[in-house]
Design a protein that fits this description.
Layout (H helix, E strand, L loop, with lengths): L1 E5 L6 H10 L3 E6 L15 E5 L9 H4 L4 E4 L11 H16 L3 E5 L12 H13 L1 H15 L4 E6 L2 E3 L8 E4 L8 E3 H12 L7 E6 L1
Parallel strand pairs: 1-2, 1-4, 2-3, 4-5, 5-6, 6-10, 7-9
Antiparallel strand pairs: 8-10
Helix pairs in contact: 1-6, 3-5
């Protein structure tokens, strides 16, 4: 497939780029600072790095034209960045509509989705985290609302607490819900799930919980 990746220098986006190239896909990585990508070349011309203004939908046209799907790891890296996920995703949606690209897979977070039936302790911890990071999760809820109101064939991937661990390919996914007692997942495995779900028609217009 021909894929465009937003947030390509982030913790998940970087894994998406590398795994997509390893799988033989053609990848356009949209970045603000190419030096942060950490990939100079894939060796056979399947990687294109595009520096673009993510606040201007018109500047994204060349990065989206003719692509089969878009994967996005855009989101706030801290509470002070809250608002960036919804704002930049709206720009991506406008650019996708102009380029007539429909398939979109994005990262959100487990507390934004339905609450799993995990018992009192897990519900309590979920409530505490949601309160502490309220601004970040409100941003993600606004992002998901923008997706739901769009014409794209979107999928939202909702991981719990993220870890820096090697790719395992062994994790659980629940379409429309969340894996029971799923507390952690590695960023590399979130990227793996995003790529797998890109070609899954059963995940279109759905939130998908993913966890170990």
């Amino acid at each position: 497939m021909k894929l465009t990746v937003f947030g390509a220098t982030g913790g998940i986006g970087g894994h998406v780029v590398r795994q997509a190239l390893d799988a033989g896909h053609e990848v356009t990585a949209v970045v603000r600072d190419p030096s942060r990508l950490g990939i100079d070349s894939d060796g056979d011309g399947r990687l294109e790095v595009v520096r673009a203004d993510l606040t201007d939908a018109r500047s994204l046209g060349a990065a989206l034209a003719g692509r089969d799907a878009v994967l996005s790891g855009l989101g706030a890296r801290s509470r002070k960045d809250a608002g960036v996920a919804a704002r930049l995703t709206r720009t991506v949606l406008d650019a996708m509509e102009a380029a007539e690209v429909r398939r979109l897979v994005v990262v959100s977070a487990a507390p934004v989705g339905p609450e799993p039936d995990d018992g009192f302790l897990d519900r309590g911890m979920r409530a505490i985290v949601s309160t502490v990071l309220r601004d970040v999760y409100d941003d993600l809820r606004a992002m998901e609302a923008a997706l739901a109101g769009s014409a794209t064939d979107w999928t939202v991937v909702r991981p719990p607490r993220l870890q820096d661990k090697p790719l395992t390919g062994r994790y659980r996914t629940v379409v429309g819900g969340f894996p029971p007692r799923g507390r952690f997942i590695g960023r590399a495995d979130v990227a793996h799930a995003m790529l797998a779900l890109t070609g899954d028609p059963g995940a279109v217009k759905q939130g998908v919980g993913v966890a170990y």
